[in-house]
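quick one, 424 residues, struct below
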Amino acid sequence: MENQTLDLDVLIVEGLKVTPQSSVPAFILLLLIYIFIMVSNIGLVVLISTERSLHQPMYLLFCNMSINDVFGASAIIPRILSDVFIPMSQRFMSYDECALQAFCAHFHVCIAHTVLIIMAFDRYVAICNPLRYAAIMTHRMVLGLSVWAWSISFLLVGILIGLSVRLSRCRRVILNPFCDNASLFKLSCENVLINHVYGLGTAILILASSLCSVMLTYMRIAMVCLRSKNQALNSKALQTCATHLAAYAILLFSGCIIITLHRFPHLSDHRKLASILLNMVSPAMNAIIYGLQIKAVREKIIIIFKRATPGKVKARQQRQLSYISEFTTDIKHVAGKSNLVADCLSRVVIGAVQLGLDYTRMAVDHVADSGIQALKVEGVGLRLEDVVFGDVGVTLLCDVSTGLSQPVVSASWRRSARTVTPRC
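---
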């Protein structure tokens, strides 16, 4: 009895089904994909962490996706690689290790869906309510939503795997490239109805929640873009939303295929291939989508590569290029005599701005204007003083509460002042 129990605690995992002739090409291909996943996702996290200009909610959520992809790929691919050259009958794994791998695999998929839900909300606020975006999507809010995504996933997947671990076992062969929840409860000869119900219920809940949230938010975003006539805004919204939709489509399509094929035993080989692709294609594509399609990230990567090229770009130019890359607007030169706004804002005192008004006549009207004389008496919270204004040496009543001499304009002069004063 002890030997039988010991045998059931050591499982045989089918792993990757390849012939001896194709084992080397398969190993090299999987290894290259795994290296690309690790380097690209970790590089994206390091880039966002070190560049202060990328410390924004959208990019911090990208970090969640990249960390999750590294976690999911590391839980599955190294074990498959280590078993490629081992005969199928000798690919042993302890039951505890199998349960842990199953937990990591489902945890990775669940986090991917919850983080994509948060990213959909982030895009909704940024496009549909841009004036309040900074107030709503604070760093504290992003941190709270990230903790919520990981905690909910941990709870749901923990219950899922716990229901399978509680079952007694009568088999020891995992007919799958790696361990997952379905492989665990298939080892038992007990009634697994509750496992099916909870597993399908959890999958439907996660898929329905993510699908509904993405559809509702993007329908609202589409309505806002259709009403807006700003082509630049619509183009930027389309770019950021397209990356999110592409990542979500890959994840949703792969997950639906695996869930469907699990219900058809005669399509087991197709299901195994789909399960491997889910844990390789999605993490690799996410790094490409978010790393190369987002303009800000792409420009930062280009600048970093330019920094690595000695003798071409000076240090000061590198800093300037890094700062300029934070802006997406077109920079155009406007001649000084035509740039009235900048000319007005650059003046230390308002008296230095030649407005083309007759200050002498304005001073005379100050004396005759009853409203201005009433201001001298009432004050109305202003600091009014007689100030010598401009180069003509006339005295005008000015408000000096802001530290600048701002002349009080009588009613008869307001139209003329608005006409000649730059809108600054």
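Strands lie at 10-13, 92-94, 173-174, 384-389, 394-399, 406-407.
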